[in-house]
Design a protein that fits this description.
Layout (H helix, E strand, L loop, with lengths): L14 H4 L23 H28 L5 E8 L5 H8 L8 E5 L5 H4 L5 H4 L8 E5 L8 H4 L5 H20 L2 E9 L2 H13 L10 H6 L2 H14 L7 E5 L3 H18 L11 H10 L2
Parallel strand pairs: 1-3, 1-4, 2-3, 4-5
Amino acid sequence: MVARKARPQATGRRISDALRVPAGPIDVRSVDPGETPELDGGKVAAKELQGGLADRLGELQEQLYAEGRTGGKRSVLLVLQGLDTSGKGGTIRHVMGQVDPQGVQIAAFGPPTPEERRHDFLWRIRRELPRPGRLGVFDRSHYEDVVTVRVLDLVPRATWSRRYSAINRFEEQLVARGARVVKCFLHISAEESRKRLLARLDNPRKHWKFDPGDIDSRALWEDYLDAYGDALERCNTEYAPWHVIPADHKWYRNWAITKLLIEQLEEMALRWPPASFDVEEQRARLLSGP
């Protein structure tokens, strides 16, 4: 008798708890970018599990969208931060590609435009917040204003150091208005980042994605990790906690963020909106008509 192959399984602990940043100081160097917490079976298991997760995520996102279409005020904002090549764009393609695009809002934040510089640093962020019923995604975010500006010395220390409390107030207000803020730091190793940059140089179809400035940024790698450590510590609140996603393995990153979103959406106890009409009356009309 041939033994049946065991189905791949995730471990019992919630990924939201496993990857959540604990209170207090954090050195992101203490997290192994190549580990795969709460997942047994490696890449094969992740791919086999992903199908079921995609179905569940799609259902929950549709419930959120339906709620918004019928007067609900809630939304979800996924914040993706990470060093160059950590996979913010890949996460959007592979995780958001599992849901109905009409319920998704995506915003990418590069260097501020002249118009944006004339306003408070949160001005451009507020303009891109997801509408009720939407699953919003930020590819970089307001955290650039306490990380990149600090590392590149673009504003005085007195300016960026005040922004931590401003961010906390801003996120608290978002949550009070019905948004669920899911913050993910995609943690990649310097060696894996080098491999991904070399892969872009080796493939002419990827040259458009290569920025020579990415090599310059590698010289500041440790400074970025220090800045992220402070941002994660000082803006890690009960209402908007941070999660560190080991991102050396793309398949794990996609699995973990999909599962994280599912857990967050399930906590919202979403329900299908009730019909605003008499179902049986409409059924009778349909059956008796042409």
